């Protein structure tokens, strides 16, 4: 059976360019399975948005997903990825090309533009990464239940 993931992505920059961070929320079967907050150094907001997309694609590959549905509040990333806007900036072109190359590893990838209010979790992670300048935080959301723990069998 093909693994399907819903992924919310966001990038934030304090200044443009300035200290930047990304946030990624990965959902499988209606449950959060991973959250990522990562500082990316000095970048524009658009670079941060693309960096979140690339990070999410890399993480989805590690999770051996087949189908991906992305949600972003970045109109630029959305319209460039679906081909409605041309990519004119050289740095963004590199990131756009990288994202498309990674997307080839999946059976199906779609992206949807959503209002910022619907992207609060990813936005919060991006802001946390930016403020705390964390190198990398990946929070797995699966935990062994007490019944499954070898130490509880006895």
Structure commentary:
- There is one protein chain.
- The longest helix is centred in the middle third of the chain and has 18 residues, at 45-62.
- The chain is globular and about 45 Å long.
- It has 154 residues and is an alpha/beta fold.
- Strands 5-4-1-2-3-6 form a six-stranded mixed beta sheet.
- 34% of the residues lie in helices and 34% in strands.
- The chain has one domain: Nucleotidyltransferase, domain 5, CATH 3.30.420.
- It contains four helices and six strands; from the N terminus they run E-E-E-H-E-H-H-E-H-E.
- Helix 1 runs parallel beside helix 3.
- It starts with a strand and ends in a 14-residue tail after the last strand.
- It has helices at residues 45-62, 75-81, 90-103, 120-132, and strands at residues 4-15, 18-28, 31-43, 67-72, 108-113, 137-140.
CATH architecture: 2-Layer Sandwich
User: Ranges with pLDDT <50 over ≥5 residues?
Assistant: 143-154
CATH topology, which one? Nucleotidyltransferase, domain 5
List SSEs in N-to-C order: EEEHEHHEHE
Q: How do the strands line up in the largest sheet?
A: 5-4-1-2-3-6
Q: Name the beta content range.
A: 25-35%
Mean pLDDT: 89
Structural class call reads alpha/beta
CATH class equals Alpha Beta
